């Protein structure tokens, strides 16, 4: 299971636990209230750990791209035949500005990062 799916599943479980906690509070069931508050605390911890891990890997990837010696905008003509471009330039990484990585890098256009000039 991917990290994104696991995070979504944990958020769904957290939401269900919060709804059940509200129901238990309205009934006055103290045993169930303590159970669901413990569940909510555990799920919150797991969610925060996963989001931290996601941010860490994103920053690691961002730093790796910024350390590459060459980057430039990919033209529309090059974008139309991306396979040919990637075959001609070894180690090319293309980042779109609307992806998480593109937003993190604050890109405005599709940009290519490579170890050599292309």
Task: Provide a compact summary of the structure.
The protein is mainly alpha-helical and 118 residues long.
Explain this structure to me?
The chain has helices spanning 3-27, 30-67, 76-80, 82-88, 100-105; strands at 70-73, 93-95, 111-114. It is mainly α.
**Mean pLDDT level:** 93
Strand proportion: 5-15%
Tell how many strands the DSSP assignment holds: 3
Q: How many whole angstroms does the radius of gyration measure? A: 22 Å
**Based on the structure, what is the oligomeric state of the protein chains?**
single chain
Distance between the termini: 37 Å
Features:
mainly alpha, YibL family ribosome-associated protein, 69% helix, Ribosomal Protein S8, Chain: A, domain 1, 118 residues, single chain
Question: Topology of this structure?
Answer:
Blueprint: H1 3-27, H2 30-67, E1 70-73, H3 76-80, H4 82-88, E2 93-95, H5 100-105, E3 111-114
Antiparallel strand pairs: 1-3, 2-3
Biased composition (Polar residues): 1-18
Protein name: YibL family ribosome-associated protein
Region (Disordered): 1-21
């Amino acid at each position: 299971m991917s990290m994104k799916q696991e995070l979504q599943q944990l958020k769904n479980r957290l939401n269900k636990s919060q709804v059940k906690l509200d129901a238990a509070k309205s009934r006055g069931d103290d045993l169930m209230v303590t159970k669901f508050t413990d569940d909510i605390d555990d799920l919150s911890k797991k969610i925060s750990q996963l989001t931290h891990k996601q941010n860490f890997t994103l920053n690691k990837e961002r730093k790796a791209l910024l350390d590459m010696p060459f980057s430039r905008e990919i033209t529309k003509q090059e974008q139309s035949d991306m396979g040919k471009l990637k075959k001609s330039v070894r180690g090319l990484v293309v980042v779109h500005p609307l992806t998480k990585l593109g937003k993190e890098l604050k890109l405005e256009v599709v940009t290519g990062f490579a170890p050599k000039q292309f």
